[in-house]
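Section 5.1 Outputs to date
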Amino acid sequence: MAQDNLDIEFKQLLCIIRQHIPFINSNHYLGQCRIWLEKLSTMDVNKITRNSYLAELCKQIQTNILNVPFTEQPPEGDPAEQELCVVKQQDLVAINIEDNSCSWSDLTDSDSESKLDNLSPDALQITDKLQKKRKVKVDRSNSHNNGNSENLKEWDMKFVTDTNYICQDWKTTIGALQMRLSEMIQQNKDLNSVIQKLKLQLEDDNIKNQAQNQYNLTITETFHAQEIVKLKEKQSKDIFLLNKTLTEDFEKNLQKVSEDFKIQIEELKQRHEETLSKKDQEIYRLSQIIQKQCLRIMNDVSSLKNEVLSCSDTKNIHILKKCISKMEKAFQKSEREYLKEIERLKQELELKESSLQVQLKMQKAELLTQARTHQKEEFEETLNNLEVKYIQMLEAHEKQIMKIKKFDDAQILYLMELLEMNGINYEHLERGDQ
């Protein structure tokens, strides 16, 4: 239980010291306090001695006067009780301790700005307890104090030297800080002038960029409209010329096909006439043969009749009659056969003529279809070429616009980087302009 109370007192003293750390005005003083606080924080053997040293250090920090043994480096191991110099008890500065768990090394605590005029009851109570415990041990070691008078004188001389060193150090520090302050003020003025110049330059650049962008946009729109009009006119002219050329080619092809058809028709007519003439000749030849046969038969019949008339034999007459009837039947049969052959030849000629007419019509239709298909393919190919050319021109125009936009973005990015290099907030400038 006693050990716990000593630990609580130790924490309370650390909290009191923490409030006065910001008021230490010497780096050497602050370094000695830090070294002794680290030394006392690592002591776990004799907590009464530890708390006694910490209470004395707390009083010296409150009075802003560092005395022995805290002006020297702490000894190795645990500090002895007789090394602690008995000084006149001073009132501790009043600070209300509300939380024992706070960190004594937190220099940002807002309680460091409290008044230093009143006495802290808790600190006095802790100090009184520690003084009582310390007096018991100091009484036991009074015999050793006489030998330490010379050490006290040396410590006083060291303290005076340390005070002079502190004053000289502060003068040097203040001079350096004043010089640094003047440099910072001049640098601040220079930066402010640079900021103003950059603001003006940024405003001018923004106005120029806006005007340039508007001008570029107007020129681009005008150029785009002119290009569209030119493309439309050129396309209409190309289509008109293409239509005219295709029409002329179609008429030429049609005329050529018509002439070819006429030539083929004439050739077919000649062939047909030649075939007809050959058939007529054949018919004439057959008719001549028939006539000759008929004459021969008629002559034979007449001769037979004459013979029959001259012949008195009835038997012969009867035979001759049979022969005549046979001859007449043969004549009729041959005549029918010749007529059938003539009809067959006429039908063949008509079929050939009709087939030739059908072939001519089919060839004419095929030639017309081929000519129209060729004309349509040429027209579609020309239209596709014009469309590809128009798309390429539009893509080139869009690429030019994108290049202009990239250039403007690069200019804006350069200006923003220039502002960031000089520590100017672009959003703050925009709000200030608004």
